[in-house]
Amino acid sequence: MIIQLEPNIQPGQLQGVEKALEAIRYRAKRVTTQQADYLVCVGKAPFDIRSIGILPGVRDIHRVSDSYKLVSRKWRVEDTVIDLGNGLKVGTGHFALMAGPCSIESEAQVDEVIAHLVANEVRIMRGGVYKPRSSPYSFRGLGMEGLRMWHEKARAAGIRIITEVMMVEQIDAMAPYVDIFQVGARNAQNFNLLDALGGVDKPVLLKRGVSGTLSELLHAAEYIFSNGNERILLCERGIRSYETAYRNTFDINAIAVLKEKTHLPVIADPSHGIGIRRFVPRIALAATVAGADGLLMEVHAQPEQALSDGQQTLSFGEARRVYEHVRELLHLRAGW
Ligand code: PEP
Ligand code: MN
Q1: Once rounded to an integer, what is the mean pLDDT over residues 27-37?
Q2: Which of 39, 75, 208, 328 has the smallest C-beta neighbourhood within 10 Å, fewest atoms?
Q3: Which of 301, 306, 239, 300 is nearest to 272 (CA)?
């Protein structure tokens, strides 16, 4: 059960609610986010929910049987739409294209990608400056220096930045230069990192773990939400399966099922989802048909030259065709 409290609840009113919960033997945890104040309650005894709903200081109340609570659609029926400012929103009715290289590599590369995005009206650029690599000998990113350079160019062009944060210690330094923090698949259950991102006033895109279930993904999101940050995007990026013909198995089902289970926006990453460039466009379109609220895709002027993930990175021409086809599909989807 979740109780949303009135923002100006009086101490006496709060005590009244706590007493009522004690009487039915429910345990309550107070959660204060950037937007609202809640009591997340767990218990078993049957009771009339209206008896608590009418108490002074209670704004809203719902039973939530899922073990993740605040991210559940049983708590919030309306879809969450995340406002990035200047008219840019992400969520139902506001499909977001996010594209850019796997890694930020150089000034020239950033200039080329920004020109491509601006020409195609894509307003969010992805790119890693701290890269989780399977081998310690691979390129591991330009770090803060690269992020500052990228930020200066992106700001001048009106482009937002989504980039991966790998450690709690990086958050404060990165925050002024980041519009959306990305949590990578390898960190999907790094609960210290998730807790810390709950205290940040920036949206967080949370990727599904390499072998993560949807329940694990939703509980990971609950960590961020219950620590104060409601602005979360979930991302399906493919999972490890027994199949070896492609890098990951993109779970198209996850898009449709997540949209039902949670009110949070659901983004698809077809690049990591299949890991093979020539198939990325059709997986991007399939995810759009399945109901995704946005796409996160790897693009590069010369994918063959990319310092990471070139094998799954689209050229500008290939990416442009995906944007065009996605926009056509969105028209169709609006009528479904
Ligand atoms: C990435 O987006 O470049 C990335 C490393 O993704 P993932 O965490 O999904 O592997
Ligand atoms: Mn990558």
Answers
A1: 97
A2: 328
A3: 239
Record: fold of 82-333: TIM Barrel (3.20.20)
For ligand 1, say whether the CB of 73 is within 6 Å of any of its atoms.
no
pLDDT digits (tens, 9 = 90+) for 43-98: 999 999 999 999 999 999 999 999 999 999 999 999 999 999 999 999 999 999 99
pLDDT band at 336 (very low <50, low <70, confident <90, very high): confident
Angle at 100 between CA 98 and CA 104, to 5 degrees: 135
Q: How would CATH label the architecture of 2-62?
A: 2-Layer Sandwich (3.30)
Give the residue extent of every domain in the chain. 2-62, 82-333
Mean pLDDT of the 119-127 span: 98
| The pTM of the whole model exceeds 0.85 | yes
> Cα of 187 to ligand 2 centre, how many Å?
14
To test the pocket of ligand 1, the residue of 207, 251, 267 to mutate (highest count of ligand atoms within 8 Å of its CB) is 207
State the pLDDT at residue 335.
86
Cβ 184 under 6 angstroms from ligand 1: yes
Retrieve residue 272's tokens: 């990591």
Q: Between β-strands 180-183 and 204-207, what pairing exists: parallel, antiparallel or unpaired? A: parallel
Q: Report the pLDDT value the prediction gives residue 131, as an integer from 0 to 100.
A: 95
